[in-house]
Write a structure and sequence with these properties.
With about 1200 residues, the protein is an alpha+beta fold. Residues about 1-20 and about 305-310 have low confidence and may be disordered.
Length: about 1200
């Protein structure tokens, strides 16, 4: 109580101190402050330092208690030659007003560093970390300082700082390599290995030399040869340093790509305005300034034309993207000259405030008209390629890395188009292609091997002739998968609902969406912040520019508050449109380009969203005189936190309007990185993901169609939480994100199996995962053009429970059965079998995954293990120590392929002493499997490039050649399982070697051979549960010992709340469920994610142990499991529910569950808990529910 009260008093003091520093100014003064701030920042960016000083000095003169002016004066002087003393003086004045501001302190530390006062610089940095322990620029700088020391304690500090930076900025090459270097020098093989493999998954495609070095370093670390890895790591670091992506990562760490680290202060710190503008008023702090000339674009696109040329309208298209991965938006332009009948392409790199030509594409001419262009990573190598739609034939320029491109042909595609969309239409990880032509729309499936297959008709797209004007792909009905809307030139539009498994259905008639019969474009955005994607149609006749509000479930209605704007737009031909937040207030505004049927001079129309669903005409914020405006692109090209406007006009000119003042409000920019190597469950840039943010009372959502998502935060300091729902449906939360936050996909199992915990005498400890043999609706591939799903059999399995994992508690054996992943178990029957046996006897059951019919259960008992005398992997490494003991030290030197669960082909050759005197031989292999999932299986089935090779076993013949004697060994059923393979009569000669070969991601822990496994000397006693209670528990935190170990759940570290998008339907009610678990009778417990069944078995009914004996157990479970993967058949619903005797699933179960009075009574009594997706949808919108 005293502790709580003291905290309360401290908070009051801190709040009072903060309030004393606030200065309130009137609106007139505030407006002048904003003007000087905007101009000063603009001049600073343009390196017009004298002008910047003048503006910031005027700001200080009218606001002498606001630190921003002083701090930016300090930065400006710092960037000027020979002015460090002036810089320090101004920064010290800023600190008097904001003593703990981390960015101002950091700038002062840089002054100390530049003037040779390193100790003072370190003190300033230490001061930052005391109050702001996650300040990235400081952590990186301090890490560099400490890493130069020879003091082991300093090196540990450096390691800790770089570790924190890597967590805050995952995927940052520079900080990750610094960390790995320190770990290797410290001979911390495990952590160095983990961070290098993690970095490898996040990097774009590297050069062959870099890839070979990474592989060499990984092999050395696997073999615990850190000292030999030092030189290859230095070589790798030196190879990567000159690359754009490395330099971009340095700029991210330093706050700038200039020579001096640090960046300006954008937001006022101590100033409040006396009366803010009313909600309906348009903000006066934003000015759009034409900077086309200063960016280097005017000279190229403003050549004088003859009178005859001016009569002919040119056509220019643009697209922006960071093709060189340096953190800046680059510009592609294709300009069509009607008079010359040719188009000319230009690629501009943005560096140091100007656009300069990149000659790998620039000034290439074509004799046909380019219609549109897009930057897209079509092959998921981490680099943005360029796809150009053309009237005669489309073109694709593949990004080769480091700023070079090569025109290529895509096998399967030889078309022309007016519009393309690259999106993951079949939800399995790669980007497919929608190609809109002047005859019909075609959907090309990405086969993940460089080729595409046209599947439009099979997917449900119309074969009718349609002239497409525009198209979008987004989750329009908020059901977790992307839908497709096609805007046709005649107004007969198509709205394709994604039915999953690569199938669509047109539901336009029930959607409420109507465009004119002369439509312009379709734009999308969540303008009312309700988590649903709204739609704007423009009209080329100038009569029906319409905004539609999304009602959910695929229904829309016209926004009534738009009527006034619609009248304003009468006579405006809408050529293009964008939703964007002009002033970072957290509400999407609308920008429309076009021209007037009445001859108005301006072609840009800006409408301000007041946050209550009402829009006001703010077009006056944009300079006039551009005439008809064609294409738009809104992006923060100068990385100052507000959105700028690129557009083309009827003269073919590219124009840029810089937003000056939008960053007076705070903002959040999010970049996604989907894991590549060893995962590939999502595309690299996260296209198709849904991002939701919560910042105090502000909620926003965004459907990702570009590599960077921008959110305005208003006057809020930061976002509280970001939730990313990746395109494969997996949610990922990120708390307290940085202003520029990269979120790297976390590699998790979304579906695998429920967990079993047991009381070990001290606590509940993880035993194993269960229900592995059943995977309802799991796609396995394609047979004769039809999807092939997993077998419908129930699990009917026994799993080993070592005696030390299960001890009596108050006369009972207590177990916990938890469901924690994105799946629904149907648990029908459980038993506990006690196996009493001599202490010198080993007891096992076969835990190998094999297809049905399942072999009968058998207990293998033996006393002697025959351990291998040699164990060599396919690379010649000695692995004997790793597999001689069951110690969680796994053979882990696997090299990942593209997908999770699939690696390069790997061998393990085991040599045994002479076994010829044994009548029977059984090979025991203990290990675990990191599996593929439903969507990966779909992807594998589409490609000829890669497939899963089940483990097979070979022995030498008389000539010493390897001969396959077991062509499919099966694989471990999840975590820490034992496979048993009958080797009786399998050896051809007295050479008792075996070779195990597979490309599945299996990690072996312990391998041996046993003979005489009949195990007659043991007693079995079967126990049924006497108590079973179903309740909500939550989700265990997962811990991974090292990269080669499985994720193990911690029973005592849990989170609660909504985690997954639940399968909807009727679940078993909480409470007593014992009657449902006593027999395999299709009357089962249906569990949802987060549920737990507490189980008890009567230990007193067991016989006493004989002297010299021990007790192990088997856990029997029978039931089914269905996961929520977007490619699992019927993976959205609990129905159809399974039953024993099904011929197949889902078709064999549809409407066939027994409908007798007995089964109807069971369902009515027990399965009464209704689960929908509402909690998942609303969990970020309404945090109070969590």
């Amino acid at each position: 109580m005293i502790h709580t009260r003291n905290i309360f008093i401290i908070l009051i003091i801190l709040l009072n101190v903060n309030c004393e520093r606030q200065v309130t100014v009137d609106e007139s003064t505030y407006s002048k402050m904003i003007s000087h701030r905007n101009l000063g920042l603009s001049f600073l960016e343009e390196e017009r330092y004298s002008d910047a000083l003048n503006e910031f000095e005027m700001l200080v003169n009218i606001a002498d208690e606001e630190p921003l002016g002083y701090a930016n004066l300090g930065l400006t002087y710092m960037r000027m030659s020979g002015e460090l003393q002036q810089s320090e003086e101004w920064l010290q004045k800023a600190l008097l007003l904001a003593p703990d501001h981390p960015d101002i302190l950091f700038l002062l530390a840089k002054v100390y560093e530049l003037t040779g006062r390193q100790p003072k610089a370190k003190v300033a940095l230490d001061r930052i970390l005391e109050k702001h322990p996650n300040h990235v620029r400081t952590l990186y700088q301090q890490g560099l300082y400490f890493s130069k020391s020879n003091d082991p304690s300093d090196l540990k500090k450096a390691e800790g700082h770089f570790m924190t930076v890597s967590k805050k900025l995952p995927g940052n090459i520079a900080s990750s390599l610094r960390l790995i270097e320190l770990l290797i020098n410290d001979e911390n093989h495990s952590d160095a290995l983990f961070h290098l493999q993690t970095l490898q998954q996040t990097l774009p495609r590297l050069s062959d030399d870099s890839s070979k070095l990474i592989r060499k370093i990984l092999d050395l670390l696997h073999n615990r040869e850190a000292s030999k890895a030092k030189i290859p790591l230095i070589m790798l670091h030196n190879l990567l340093k000159p690359t754009d992506i490395y330099q971009g990562s340095i700029a991210e760490l330093r706050g700038t790509n200039g020579p001096i680290a640090g960046k300006p202060i954008f937001r006022f710190i101590n100033t409040k305005v006396k009366q803010k503008h009313k909600k309906d008023e348009i903000p006066n702090n934003v000015v759009f300034t034409d900077v086309s000339s200063s960016l280097g674009l005017s000279d190229i696109f403003s050549t004088k034309k003859s009178t005859e040329q001016n009569k002919q309208e040119d056509y220019t298209i643009i697209t922006l993207g960071d093709h060189d991965s340096d953190g800046d938006q680059d510009l592609f332009v294709s300009s069509w000259s009607k008079e010359q009948n040719k188009s000319t392409q230009y690629l501009f790199d943005y560096d140091n405030g100007i656009f300069s030509m990149n000659n790998s594409i620039s000034v290439i001419e074509n004799d046909s008209k380019d219609i549109s262009a897009t930057f897209v990573d079509y092959n998921n190598d981490g680099y943005l390629d360029i796809y150009i739609s053309n009237k005669k034939k489309d073109r694709l320029y593949q990004n080769l890395g480091e700023g070079s491109f090569e025109q290529i042909n895509i096998p399967g595609i030889d078309e022309h188009s007016s519009k393309v969309l690259f999106m993951d239409f079949d939800l399995e990880g790669d980007l497919d292609l929608l190609l809109c032509t002047d005859t019909k729309d075609m959907l090309f499936r990405n086969n993940s091997d460089g080729s595409y297959t046209e599947i439009g008709h099979d997917a449900g797209l119309s074969n009718e002739v349609s002239l497409t004007r525009d198209a979008i792909y987004s989750d329009l009905d908020d059901d977790g998968d992307g839908d497709l809307f096609i805007l046709n030139m005649n107004g007969e539009n198509l709205y394709y609902d994604n039915l999953r498994q690569g199938s669509f259905k047109n539901i336009i008639s029930s959607s409420g969406l109507i465009s004119s019969n002369t439509p312009g474009v379709i734009a999308k955005g969540d303008y009312n912040n309700d988590g649903l994607i709204d739609i704007l149609f423009t009209d080329l006749s100038g009569k029906m520019n319409e905004l539609y509000r999304n009602l959910g479930d695929g229904k829309f209605e016209a926004e009534q508050n738009w009527d006034k704007i619609k009248r304003r737009l009468q006579g405006i031909r809408g050529y293009d449109a964008e939703f964007f937040d002009l002033d970072n207030d957290g509400h999407l505004d609308i920008l429309i380009s076009g021209n007037s049927t009445e001859g108005q001079t301006s072609g840009l129309y800006l409408f301000y969203n007041n946050g209550s669903g009402k829009f006001s005409d703010a077009s006056y914020l944009i300079p006039e005189g551009y005439g008809a405006v064609k294409q738009l692109n809104a992006t923060d090209h100068d990385n100052d936190g507000d959105i700028d406007i690129f557009f083309t006009d009827s003269k073919g000119k590219v124009n840029v309007l810089r937003n000056d003042g939008g960053n007076i409000n705070n903002y959040l920019k999010i970049s996604l990185i989907g894991l590549r190597t060893g995962s590939s469950k999502n595309n690299y840039f996260g296209l198709g993901a849904k991002i939701e943010i919560r910042a105090a009372d502000l909620y926003q959502s965004h459907y990702v169609d570009q590599p960077i998502a921008h959110f305005g935060l208003g006057n809020r300091d930061s976002a509280d939480v970001v939730r990313v729902v990746w395109s494969n449906g997996v949610p990922q939360n990120h708390f307290k994100p940085d202003m520029n936050q990269t979120i790297v996909e976390t590699q998790v199992l979304k579906g695998s199996c429920p967990y079993l915990f047991g009381w070990n005498g001290d606590q509940y400890d993880f035993i194993t995962d269960v229900l592995w043999p059943s995977a309802l609706g799991m796609p396995l591939g394609i047979m004769a053009g039809e999807p092939l799903f997993a077998f419908p059999n129930s699990t009917d399995e026994y799993l080993r429970v070592p005696g030390e994992k299960l001890k009596m508690k108050d006369g009972y054996y207590s177990l916990k059965f938890t469901t924690e992943l994105w799946e629904t178990p149907y648990l029908d029957n459980i038993k506990l079998v006690a196996i009493d046996h001599p202490k010198d006897m080993h007891v096992y059951v076969n835990e190998t995954f094999v297809p049905p019919p399942f072999p009968p259960s058998r207990v293998y008992g033996f006393k002697t293990k025959f351990l291998p005398i040699a164990a060599i992997d396919g690379q010649g490494n000695d692995q004997l120590q790793k597999i001689s003991y069951q110690d969680d030290e796994h053979i882990a030197n696997l090299h990942s392929e593209m997908y999770q669960g699939v690696t390069e082909l790997h061998d393990l050759i085991l040599t045994f002493n002479d076994l010829s005197n044994s009548d029977s031989l059984f090979l025991f292999l203990q290990g675990w499997l990191f599996p593929t999932d439903a969507s990966i299986n779909v992807n594998l089935s589409q490609s000829n490039k890669l497939n899963s090779i089940f483990p097979f076993l070979q022995v030498p013949n008389e000539n010493g050649n390897w001969i396959t004697v077991v062509d499919n060994m099966g694989f471990p059923k999840g975590k820490n399982k034992t496979m048993i393979i009958d080797l009786t009569d399998k050896f051809i000669t007295n050479d008792h070697r075996v070779r195990i070969r597979t490309n599945m991601q299996i990690y072996w822990d312990h391998i041996f051979i046993a003979s005489d496994v009949s195990g007659n000397v043991f007693n079995k006693t079967e126990l049924s549960p006497i108590y079973a209670d179903l309740q909500y528990r939550g989700f265990s935190e997962l811990d991974k010992k090292d990269y080669g170990s499985p994720h193990i759940p911690d029973y005592y570290s849990i989170t609660q709340g909504q985690k997954w998008r639940d399968l909807i339907g009727y679940y078993t009610k909480y409470g007593d469920v014992l009657p449902l678990l006593l027999n395999s009778d299709s009357k089962y417990v249906i569990m949802n994610a987060g549920d737990e069944i507490s189980l008890q078995f009567d230990a007193t009914s067991l016989p006493e142990l004989e002297k010299g004996w021990r007790r192990d157990f088997l856990f029997y479970n029978d039931g089914w499991l269905k996961d929520g993967d977007l490619n699992t058949a019927q993976g959205q619903t609990v129905e159809p529910i399974p039953f024993h005797g099904m011929s197949s699933y889902p078709n064999g179960a549809q409407d066939q569950y027994p409908e007798t009075d007995e089964y109807s009574a069971y369902r009515e009594e027990y399965n009464t808990r209704i689960i929908t997706t509402d909690k998942f949808k609303n969990s970020i919108k309404d945090l109070s529910n969590n």
